[in-house]
From TrEMBL:
Belongs to the WD repeat PROPPIN family. Pfam families: PROPPIN. InterPro entries: PROPPIN, WD40/YVTN_repeat-like_dom_sf, WD40_repeat_dom_sf. It comes from Aphanomyces astaci. This is Autophagy-related protein 18. Keywords: Repeat, WD repeat. The lineage of its organism: Eukaryota, Sar, Stramenopiles, Oomycota, Saprolegniomycetes. The keyword Repeat applies.
Length: 290
């Protein structure tokens, strides 16, 4: 998962390895790779300003995009770097700035503002180019699993997400995922999808979500926002959310949910209330935040 730094400090971006083993960080001075267990710096290179740094799992390959502060590190150039040999494997140049990069063992996905390029990661040959609507946040997520599912916002329809097969190069589905334009996307470790599972609400006041992420077993979902807090939601027991009670986690025990009668009353009241009010009442709350 990629995270752009929102401050004016030396950090330009950070990215977590899909299996939570490593973190890569791009800065104005270069890039760093940290191992998580135990936490330690495993590699660093002070070559220049880096705007994007994405690792291929826990291998020695890392994809770099310049921050544009030096001519040699243009944001329109993508470089595949080998940390073992400290040498570039190949460079890819684009007409406009590279805003996002996703990769797994079979595909490299490069996100521009209005295009998505799909490459074979072994040959680095472009396989397909997808035209998109304006996507300045580079919203796009590639499954780390072998299925190669790719998700990105659809053009022209607010809240619609396109699900694309990056292996067979075909559109799988389009999902109405939100009422408004999405600001963050995440896919679990196995790339499962198909139907709406839940709606969550992080608070009563408006906030800008910066990132969302699943845990490795897809039982928890967390999100960060401009309020400086991280909220954690449970994904267990969703099928029985209106039948009585379910356990958010083994440590917290049962939590009472809406009984069928209460759910019916809520639905009846919602029909009389403005949509702006009913939206506040919808969605399960977090069980923890920091």
């Amino acid at each position: 998962m990629r995270r752009m730094c929102r401050t004016n400090d030396a950090c330009a971006c950070s990215s977590r390895h899909p299996r939570r083993r490593c973190i890569s960080v791009g800065t104005r001075q270069g890039f760093f790779v940290y191992s998580c267990e135990p936490f330690a710096r495993s590699f660093q290179d002070a070559a220049g300003g880096i705007g994007l740094a994405e690792m291929l799992f826990s291998s020695s390959l890392i994809v770099l995009v310049g921050a544009g502060e030096q001519p040699a590190f243009s944001p329109r150039r993508l470089r595949v770097w080998n940390t073992k040999t400290s040498a570039a494997i190949c460079d890819l140049n684009f007409v406009t700035a590279v805003l996002g990069v996703q990769l797994n063992r079979q595909r490299l996905v490069v996100v521009l503002e209005k295009k998505i390029y799909i490459f074979d990661i072994n040959s680095m040959q472009v396989l397909n180019t997808l035209d998109t609507s304006s996507n300045p946040k580079a919203l796009c997520v590639l499954s780390p699993a072998d299925n190669g599912y790719l998700a990105f916002p659809a053009g022209g329809v607010a809240g619609e997400i396109v699900l694309y097969d990056a292996i067979n190069l075909s559109v799988l589905n389009a999902v109405q995922a939100h009422r408004g334009m999405p600001v963050a996307l995440a896919m679990n470790a196995t790339g499962t999808f198909g139907k709406k599972r839940a709606t969550f609400r992080r608070g009563s006041y408006p906030a800008t979500i910066y990132s969302v992420a699943f845990n490795p077993t897809s039982t928890l979902l967390c999100c960060s926002s401009d309020t400086g807090t991280v909220h954690i939601f449970s994904l267990t027991g969703l099928e029985s959310a209106v039948t009585g009670s379910y356990s958010l986690s083994p440590m917290l025990g049962p939590v009472t949910r809406l009984e069928p009668k209460a759910a019916t009353t809520k639905a009846m009241l919602s029909s009389y209330l403005p949509s702006s009010v009913t939206r506040i009442a919808e969605g399960a709350r977090d069980f923890a935040y920091v």
